[in-house]
Structures are given as structure tokens and as C-alpha cells.
Design a protein that fits this description.
71% of the residues lie in helices and 0% in strands. The chain is built from twelve helices and no strands. InterPro entries: BP-dependent_transpt_permease, MetI-like, MetI-like_sf.
């Protein structure tokens, strides 16, 4: 090989991969959503429950209300900003609970083979076959609505995926040399799984998180749309869509603003998840 060929190969090896435009836009959107969620009350021009009865159902574009007002004269932009905070809080909280519960059960199934493993697999099969929306409707209708209950209930969605992935990868890791070597050095099972196995399978779990996160947003939106999610005076994206459906012909902006935000946010997370899957999959390198 010539020096020029070696130089070109070295440059390609150390050149940082370019991020596609779609992924860059998706990341920018998610960052913007996080900033809005953190400073929603400071950014909002009005209080999200503040009434302006003289400007009820005001169309978007006027100086006082850029995105218009709803049937009670509440500023749609202010409600949208606060709704983003609540919906992201539910989505992040529920996804974290789902990941922790599923990964823990997967590790338990991989470590305690036999009865415990079969019990965990039975739970995952039961969860996968259960219509989650119907179960959520029953729980919320029976126990009432509260934000902690809603987050905990959403956290029970999708954990079986983490359990299956964590179990399979942990069994594979236990069969490899590094886990056996650490075990022979006297490390406890907790240290082995948290300090050695978990970092090696984290990339796959992260990709799974990007798949569960948008589904949680859509599930919360669906429950709020049906009136069993976030309750007034608190607001969320699904809650706004639910209230806006009654004015879809007279004031479509009430529903279109939160609905567009839901679609773009879930699309952005999905785009990032697909890109991470391609980047973190060693078979595609």
C-alpha cells in the first residue's frame, strides 16, 4: 500500500461520522422540547388557566394570542407550553420506571435460572398479551385520577421488552470470559450485573427506550383524550386534543397545535432511535 492509501485509510478511520440532517433536526426538536418543559411558566405569555372572555375562540395570528384562544379565552400557546412539560414528565417518568422494572426482572431471570426464570417469562407473556389500554382504563376508572398514579401506571407499559432483552443479553454475557473472571475474583452478583454486564448491554436498552418513549406519549395522549388521563385544571397535550375535538369545525387551532406537537415529538424520538440502532449495532459497522 502506498503512503497516500494509508493516509486516506487513517483519515477515514478517525473521521467522525456525519449526523444526517433528519437526525440533527430531531435532536434539535427534542432539545427545544426539554428547554420549553424546564422554563414553561417563564416562557408562557399568560397563565395557562387565565381567562380572557372578551377574546373567546380568537383565531391565531393576533398580537395578544399568537396561537389563538380556546372556548374560555385561555391562551393556546401558554397552555401548549405547560402541556409539553406535563406530557414529557409523564413520558420520562414512565419510561424510567419501565426500564428499571424490566431490566431488573431480566437480570433476576438470567441469574436465578429455573423456577424464577419461568415465573418472569410467564409475567412477560401475560403482560404482552394484556390489552394495556383496557387495563389502564379500568384502573383509572376504579382508583381515580392523579399524576403519580398515571405515571406509575404508564410505567407498567413496555417493561416486558426490557425484561426479554436484559435476560437474553445477560445470559450471553455470563457465558463470556469477562463475567466469569470477575465472578472468580469474588465480586457479588449485584456488582457483576451493574458494573460489568449492564454497561455492555446498555446500548441495546437505550435503543429500546427510544421505542417505548413515543408509545408512552401516545398512550398518555389517548387516555387524556378519553378523559381518564390528566385532569383539569392541569393540562397535557392529550388533554388539549380532547377538549379541542368539540371545536374542530369552529376553532381547529385548539386541537391542531397539541396534535402537531405530539406527532413531531414522537417522530423525532423514532428518528433518533433508528439512527442509534444503526450506530450501536456492531453488525452494521
Amino acid at each position: 500500500m502506498t503512503d497516500a492509501t494509508l493516509k486516506d485509510a487513517s483519515v477515514r478511520r478517525f473521521r467522525r461520522p456525519a449526523i444526517p440532517v433528519s437526525v440533527a433536526l430531531a435532536v434539535a426538536w427534542i432539545v427545544a422540547m426539554l428547554v420549553i418543559a424546564a422554563f414553561a411558566e417563564k416562557i408562557a405569555p399568560y397563565g395557562y388557566t387565565q381567562l380572557d372572555l372578551r377574546n373567546r375562540l380568537s383565531a391565531p395570528g393576533n398580537v395578544a394570542h399568537w396561537l389563538g384562544t380556546d372556548e374560555l379565552g385561555r391562551d393556546v400557546l401558554s397552555r401548549l407550553l405547560v402541556s409539553i412539560r406535563i406530557s414529557l414528565l409523564i413520558a420520562f417518568g414512565a419510561t424510567a420506571i419501565s426500564a428499571i422494572v424490566g431490566t431488573t426482572l431480566g437480570f433476576l431471570a438470567a441469574h436465578f435460572r429455573g423456577v424464577i426464570e419461568q415465573f418472569v417469562l410467564m409475567l412477560t407473556d401475560f403482560q404482552a398479551s394484556m390489552p394495556f389500554l383496557i387495563m389502564a382504563l379500568a384502573v383509572l376508572a376504579f382508583f381515580g385520577n392523579s399524576l403519580p398514579l398515571l405515571i406509575g401506571l404508564m410505567g407498567m407499559f413496555g417493561w416486558e421488552r426490557y425484561a426479554r432483552i436484559a435476560r437474553g443479553l445477560a445470559i450471553s454475557a455470563n457465558a463470556q470470559g469477562y463475567a466469569a473472571a470477575v465472578r472468580q475474583l469474588g465480586a457479588t452478583p449485584t456488582r457483576i450485573y451493574l458494573r460489568h454486564i449492564l454497561p455492555n448491554i446498555a446500548s441495546t436498552l437505550i435503543v429500546s427506550t427510544t421505542l417505548v418513549f413515543p408509545e408512552v406519549i401516545l398512550m398518555e395522549s389517548g387516555l387524556s383524550f378519553l378523559g381518564l388521563g390528566v385532569q383539569p385544571p392541569m393540562t397535557s397535550l392529550g388533554n388539549m386534543v380532547g377538549y379541542g375535538r368539540e371545536y374542530i369545525t369552529r376553532a381547529p387551532w385548539i386541537m391542531l397545535a397539541p396534535a402537531t406537537t405530539i406527532v413531531v415529538t414522537t417522530l423525532a424520538v423514532s428518528v433518533i432511535g433508528d439512527w442509534l440502532r444503526d450506530r450501536l449495532d456492531p453488525t452494521l459497522q
